[in-house]
Amino acid sequence: MSGVKVKRTRRIAINTGGGDAPGLNAVIRAATLSALQMGWEVIGIRRGYTGLLEGEVDGEPGVFPLTANSVRGITHLGGTILGTTTRGNPFGLDVRRPDGTWGVADRSTEIVRRFEEMEIDALIAIGGDGSLNIANALQAKGLPVIGVPKTIDNDLAATDMTFGFQTAVEVATDAIGRLHSTAEAHQRTMIVQVMGRHTGWIALESGLAGGSDVILIPEIPYQTSSIVAKIRERDEERRRFSIIVIAEGAVPAGGEPSYVDQTGRYGGIADRLAVELETLTGKETRSMVLGHIQRGGTPIAYDRNLALRFGAAAVRCINEGRLGTMVALQGNEIVPVPLLDAVKELKRVPVDCDMVCTARQLGVCLGD
Ligand code: F6P
After folding, report:
1. What domains can you pick out in the chain, each with its CATH number?
2. Model-level pTM?
3. Ligand 1 atom closest to residue 266's alpha carbon, by position in its atom list
4. Ligand 1 touching residue 172 (CB < 6 A)
5. Contacts made by residues 179-183, CB under 8 angstroms, sequence distance 24+
6. Which of 153, 155, 213, 303 is an active site residue?
């Protein structure tokens, strides 16, 4: 029949951006299976938006169909089958000029055009604050987006929890727990540096669960004298070892955080504190950095289920036309919140929250 517009199959795309987190593949699996169940097509984009801009990524097509077979058995796998990048902001991509120098290019309009050419109806962007800010800016340019909150840092304000966080806490707690015997054997002070970027959620939750004596978070600038007093107090109680958990973004009162480079990447605070404490207390002190171990490996059951719920909810949002939103955990429910609300501020540890109060009531030193 002429003139009758045949309704085409709805098509959605999925990408993963920023640092990886345990649970990414569970989101991809749930979103893909939910969309396929609706009779839609699903496209995977490799490495953030790179796959849209480059025909090939790592020798594979930059975009490719996600099928039931593509996502079979990936719920428990760490990492992301799509790959990711922390340097893929389409509004400011590093580009090499013909003369060999480097510049920055805004290729965001090209991204929107590629979505239109491929007749993609919506993008499920799985990411942290950086990726979700990019998704929000693309939404403003007309690209329909649903955000899924991913980060081990748990620092996104609009959701009670991000997936990946509890797995990182589990990994850090296990590491901290293992230190008690070796610290006691040598009567040492052991300092464990954990991730979390600008916030102390991982340090607080793993420090409490791991039975640490001192927990240092960016939200509470620490006095070295308070830490020394805690170590000496334990000595007097004949508990001649101490476990200190310090967030990578922690800062001495009146001082500055420790960075590893000019980009503002945190690093070195545990080593810096270890030198100070060994000098001030005269006790052998050792420091260690858990680093990317907190991001690796299989997600724990809690994060698998949270990630599956987020992925399925993202498809429901698209089906209900709730675009420009992020799926969020609020209480026990997954609800859509405006993407703008999700990215406008970081969720920092309230210094009077019940977990901080609990730590203080247990006699944990918070450095103040
Ligand atoms: O945001 C997640 C996170 O793991 C932070 O906790 C950490 O500071 C950062 O990423 C590390 O980034 P990269 O993987 O680029 O070293």
Report:
1. 11-163+299-331 (3.40.50.450), 166-296+350-361 (3.40.50.460)
2. 0.95
3. 8
4. no
5. 179/243, 180/211, 180/241, 180/243, 183/241, 183/242, 183/243
6. 153
